[in-house]
Write a structure and sequence with these properties.
Elements: H1 6-14, E1 19-23, H2 27-35, E2 40-43, H3 47-50, H4 62-73, E3 80-84, H5 94-107, E4 111-117, H6 125-135, E5 140-145, H7 151-154, H8 165-180, E6 185-189, H9 193-202, E7 207-210, E8 218-221, H10 223-226, H11 244-260, H12 276-282
Parallel strand pairs: 1-2, 1-8, 2-3, 3-4, 4-5, 5-6, 6-7, 7-8
Helix pairs in contact: 2-4, 5-6, 8-9
This protein binds 3-methyl-2-oxobutanoic acid and sodium ion.
The site of sodium ion has 4 residues, from loops.
Amino acid sequence: VHQLTVKDIMAKYHRRNPISMVTAYDYITASWAQNANSDMILVGDSVAMCSLGYESTTQLSLDEFQYHVGAVCRAPGPAFVVVDMPFGSFERSISDGIGNAFQLLHLNPKVQAVKVECGLSQDDYSLEYIKELVRRGISVIGHIGLTPQRVHSLGGYKAQGGQQSTDAVALYNVSQTLQQIGCFGIVLECIPHKISSVITDKLHIPTIGIGAGPDTSGQVLVQSDVLGMLPGHKPKFVKMFADFKKDAVSALSQYVQEVHDKSFPHIGHHTFKVNDEVYQDFI
Ligand code: KIV
Ligand code: NA
């Protein structure tokens, strides 16, 4: 199967066709995303919360993440595959961060790009790091706005850039810098739609929005949100396209009930036959 490339993604962007991206965390969710024809699959560090039960993406180790990246990559299909650089995997030093990016790429040849969360100051370390990745020929997507790895310094999970004009300007400026240092795309997370619309307009690389309105070049959602897999708070920007949790619990309850009342398994539908002679000898 031909896997979409950066060139294909840019061609779609230049045709002004919206780009679709969804997260995947393992072989199953990646197979679904591939079968659904998503342009891009993101192995997000949201795997920490959405699959592993952690409270924050900051708790995810690179080794744990690798295990999930490997499983996603074993699902065949044409989607462009992007992986997050998890918290702590790139901040210690440039050489440490470069080494970890190469490790992810070495072990998973299907991975075509990495995504890096960025702060809004022009001297943010992430910008230096991205520059060094790009210099080495690694394709990078920047991520600005609500960057969950920085939840503490941002003061919680909340929309960014809508309260003070300096914040909106900082978002704009860093989007320009990310383009300048060679990112081929930028994720905009939880940014007022009018701000992300202007940011998108002024760039010549695609923006992929989550909680950033309809005017970004593409959209990304977390698969467990799309499918309604998890209980609990649903962020405002999420549209739940299915109710898997409800369907799963109902199906499993029925199974448990049928085990208890012995209506499953059914002799005939779910059983194997034994040759009569074999059976006579056996007893
Ligand atoms: O980890 C993730 O799922 C993400 C998306 C929300 C963009 O970074
Ligand atoms: Na992420």
